[in-house]
Amino acid sequence: MAELTDEVRTWLKTRHQAVLITLRANGAPQSSNVGTTFDGTDFHVSVTASRAKTRNLLRDPRATMHVLGRNFWSFASVSCTADVGAVSTAPGDQPGQALLALYNTISDVPHPNPAEFFQAMVDERRLVLTLHPLSVAGNGWQAR
User: Fold this and answer.
1) Cβ–Cβ contacts within 10 Å for residue 137, how many?
2) Which residue of 36, 81, 140, 143 is 20 to 30 Å from 69, comparing CA positions?
């Protein structure tokens, strides 16, 4: 495992598909395909409060973001620690605003109906995970 260099950080900023790997209570891995953004410092992922990955990270903040490249051999496996954000409880609240910003970044197109989006975030009990990278392995950034 190595530190995240500027080259790796630049590559991660261009990727929005990853596999989030967390640890179950018995230590077994649990994986989920996720949409993500990387802001140069941290990954951000929209999740629901009731999902296994969220419960796992509340119990043990260790995680791996396996970021997918353009081909099978292009990837970065990033060891992280996670912070679980607050659940959106009122349309347009701070968690809802963060979720909308995340959506807009991943989709590259603003959501057409923010009011509808904010209500859906409350109804689904969504929140933002923030994952702080510790180290990286892989070769995705070299195989552009």
Assistant:
1) 13
2) 81
Sign of the four-CA dihedral 106, 112, 116, 119: positive
Residues in the chain: 144
Around 14, how many Cα atoms within 13 Å sit in the side-chain half-sphere?
Answer: 12
What architecture does CATH give domain 6-139?
Answer: Roll (2.30)
Roughly what angle, to the nearest 10 degrees, separates helices 114-123 and 94-107?
120
SS3 134: strand
Model confidence pLDDT, tens digit, residues 15-33: 999 999 999 999 999 999 9
85-106: b (≥16 Cβ within 10 Å) or e: bebbeebbbebbebbbebbeeb
> How far apart are alpha carbons 107 and 117 in whole angstroms?
14
Residue 142: predicted pLDDT:
64
Condensed to tens digits (0 to 9), the pLDDT of residues 91-104 reads 999 999 999 999 99
Domains of the chain, residue spans: 6-139
Task: Determine the Cα–Cα distance for residues 140 and 75; give it in Å rounded to an integer.
Answer: 4
